[in-house]
Automatic annotation (TrEMBL):
An example Gene Ontology biological process: peptide transport
Organism: Streptomyces corchorusii
SUPFAM superfamilies reported for this sequence: P-loop containing nucleoside triphosphate hydrolases (SSF52540)
Record flagged with keyword Transport: yes
UniProt xrefs under InterPro entries: AAA+_ATPase, ABC_transp_ATP-bind, ABC_transporter-like_ATP-bd, ABC_transporter-like_CS, Oligopep_ABC_C, P-loop_NTPase
Gene3D superfamilies, A to Z: P-loop containing nucleotide triphosphate hydrolases
Similarity-based family: Belongs to the ABC transporter superfamily.
Superkingdom of source: Bacteria
Name of the protein this chain belongs to: Diguanylate cyclase
Any Pfam family the entry gives: ABC_tran
GO molecular function terms attached to this record: ATP binding; ATP hydrolysis activity
UniProt key word Nucleotidyltransferase: no
Matches recorded under SMART domains: AAA (SM00382)
Length: 258
């Protein structure tokens, strides 16, 4: 299977603001020496408690932030923050908060067409926007409306349509369901599952919800205090976790009575 995204020895430390004139500078090791591989057709779930470094790791892999050490490669080519049109066509992202990630002054048409225009992708953008809206379960007639006119779930559908616009191979989701009502989560989860199948997407999903990862991912990486404490096929890691932290995470997942 072709290797798509690869992170090697990634570390990122943040210097926190001093809390007083005399307090020593504090450094937060958000990600420490993490390596991972994403292979075509597989999907990787990054799980861990809040603050374990999941989003920082995702930002490094998306080349939205620069590691202090380590490298990111896509199909063997090194990726560094900067103008990366070739990489942005291949790897797209859906963030947690669809309201925060959609420009309130832009119409749905302009939001979904943004990557097509920024990446100068040829073709009829209006037709492509309509096709993408249909793919995410929205009627193309909504193209002239604004984000505030939609529910949270519909806004996340718009964000997903935008991410799919350039025809990416990899879709990164940073907690794409956690800002949504519980009733809507299952719908967006099913949509991501269907789209991954229909478009042959490789997913990289950051989630604190192991149920989501169990449903969508073939592989899992468990983060604790910035380190990857366990990684491997989801079926074996989630059925027979080796690390006590993974066991604790799994034990914290509420189970519905059969
Ligand atoms: N820009 C930043 N400046 C300072 N500290 C940061 C910054 N970004 C992240 N951190 C710190 O790095 C650590 C890891 O944060 P990160 O957001 O990656 O964790 P997370 O697992 O995604 O958590 P959550 O699920 O709550 O989003 C946290 O302690 C966080 O406070």
């Amino acid at each position: 299977m072709t290797q798509l995204l690869k992170g090697t020895g990634l570390s990122r430390t943040f210097r926190l603001p001093r809390t007083s004139l005399f307090a020593p500078a504090v450094h937060r090791h958000a990600v420490q020496d993490v390596s991972l591989e994403l292979r075509e057709g597989n999907s990787l779930g990054i799980v861990g408690e809040s603050g374990s470094g999941k989003s920082t790791l995702a930002r490094l892999l998306l080349a939205l932030d620069r590691p202090d050490s380590g490298t990111v490669h896509y199909r063997g080519r090194e990726v560094k923050p900067g103008r990366l049109p070739w990489f942005r066509r291949e790897v797209q992202v859906v963030l947690q908060d669809p309201m925060g990630s959609l420009d309130p002054r832009a119409t749905v048409r302009d939001i979904v067409a943004e990557p097509l225009e920024c990446l100068r992708i040829p073709g009829d953008h209006d037709d492509r926007v309509d096709e993408l809206l249909r793919a995410v379960g929205l009627d193309p007639s909504v193209r002239g409306r604004y984000p505030h006119e939609f529910s949270g779930g519909q806004r996340q559908r718009i964000a997903i349509a935008r991410a799919l616009a350039p025809g990416p191979k990899v879709l990164v989701g940073d907690e794409p369901l956690s800002a949504l009502d519980v009733s809507v989560r299952a719908q967006i989860l099913a949509l991501l599952d269907d789209l991954a199948e229909a478009y042959g997407l490789t997913l990289l999903l950051v989630s604190h919800d192991i149920g989501v990862v169990r449903r969508l991912c073939t592989d899992v990486l468990v983060m604790k205090d910035g380190r990857a404490v366990e990684q491997g096929p989801a079926a074996s890691v989630l059925a027979d976790p080796r690390h006590p932290y993974t066991r604790r995470l799994l034990a914290a997942v509420p189970r519905l009575p059969a």
